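Reopening: Acyltransferase family protein still failing for me.
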Amino acid sequence: MTTLAYRRDIDGLRAIAVIAVVLFHFGVPGFTGGFVGVDIFFVISGYLITSIIWRERLAQRFSFVDFWARRARRILPALFVMMLGALVAGWFLLAPKDYDELGRSVHYQVVFTSNLLFMRQDGYFDVASDLKPLLHTWSLSVEEQFYIIFPLLLTLLSSRLKHWRMALFTLLLASFALSVWAVAHYPEKAFYLLPMRAWELLAGSMLAVVPARDWRASPALAQAVSLAGLGLILLAIFAYDPSTPFPGAAALLPVVGVVCLIWANGQQLTLTGKLLGSRLMVGVGLISYSWYLWHWPVFVFGNYASVDDLGPWQLGGLFLLSLLLGYASWRFIEAPFRERRLLAGRRQILAAAGIAILGLGLIGKSLGWADGVPWRLSPNALQFAQARTWSPELMACLSDDKKNNHRELCRFGPQFGATRALVWGDSHASALIPALEDGVSTYGASVTQAGYSGCVPFSRQESTPGCVKFNQRVTQVLSQEAFSDVVLVARWSLYVYGERSGDTGASLLDPTTGKYDRAVAEQRFSEALRALVQQVRASGRRVWLVKEVPLQDFSVPYRLSRLAMLGRPTDREGLPLEDHLKRQAYISSVFEQIAAADPGVKLLDPAPRLCNATGWCRVEFGGRALYTDDNHLSDVGARYVEAFLEPLFLSLRHQTEASSL
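Support: Ran it again with your exact input. Result attached.
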């Protein structure tokens, strides 16, 4: 097994891997576990790389420099051209923040660490990740890190230890155990980091270094193992989905499947091996690397440019485009470099790689220095894009799990007298700060704002420790200070129902099962809110319940800026009022029941300011975005709806005037 004769079946395995990944990313039904194609690549890579190293070490002609030069020749030219293409496409398509993020991705990837960058951001399967053109390079970073470390490790072990193969196998087991543990405790690290992925590459490595005499099998056994290996791979591709805890133990199916196929067809060419070695499969396998490089940026930029969801024909067109680009990359970039028709010497390829790394790294870094080059955009598109972020002053008034909670309260207006309002809630309470500031200035009122991200203003068993402490602190402030009114603001439906796309994020779970149940969540919400209102009312304070703003189906700044960049109209974007009312029906009924039972409870609703008689809820006004994302009001949006707070401020002013008589 130490020889490295060309194996057509391995190219066929590459074909299965890339087809699975591409069809998964393009959302083709059935391929819900296509992400395991990356694991197939890992095992193949471990096998081939170790075979090369070990064969050359046995022949006493292994050179680290030659090895890394070959890796550079194999991987970097096509990768760098793809990244350059993404930068060019991004210049014309991406909003400043996204172009800045693309630059960061390039900067990290040229030093083989993009997996570290993406680990700290949104999860691989999150919707936000669909707007990252270089997300797929995380797997290349893992492989490149392995290529740097493994030759040194293999040389050290094989030259110093008699039973070095057992040591290598022990490292495999340790990495697998770490992966299983991390999936349960640190899933993002388990997915992205080399220590938790190394066992997959080492599984291929073990195939390459175990003596051939230890692997002999009968033809019947080889046929059975080969067929079983293919079955394990297909089972993972069709049975897994993004909810599968991965990699961990679940990765055993594709990894063991690939090991079985490589081993069995190393014994003899099986029927499965003949299928994998067919002309079509080998052809796809040959271009698999370049196709993998191009398919994801094509999909991301296609989504970005379309603005609306892509239809089947559009997806089919993008699929074909990615395949053509992959073929062109293989034909005109990969093959000439691998066949040494370009930069034939190792010094030449390493020097060119170094120059390209410096150049692309500098370009990527400069995009951050230039804030994503905002002057590329028209004034209108730029104005929409800039609505994505709140002002630093507003952010300073929002606590979250990453802050030390030293500033839970922000005070506006004169902080004395008995007529003062406390605005208490999650980030939606903080989003109202521009409107609160205007109200304080206009009516001479006094307002204290307390907002904690993702924290509904009543204590919950499932809350983060920071949220629980925050609510306890606000309750303590209420008992110590003279507030006349308490305004409760939150994205209520998030805690009851989760995100609009499903129950992800719902935190009012069934305490008996620890799982989500809509009826239980609604009941818990009603009971908790009624108890909180009762508690506040018992202290003699008025309560104002603020209903949610309409939740949109898209990130508003993204969509509006992209529409403006494409020259398309923006003034008819928004959510149908019927959808908003349907989602809020139960919550609104609870609010209305509480208010009807107690004249000291009042309702405030920003939706009428955003939703008109024609039945839709707008997201822009006068060329400005009213939201920072799909649910938070922007500074402009808060001021656009601020009139809905007029009853509160009029009440505060009347109380102030009455107390001064």
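The longest helix spans residues 64-93. If you still see a failure, please send the error message rather than a screenshot.
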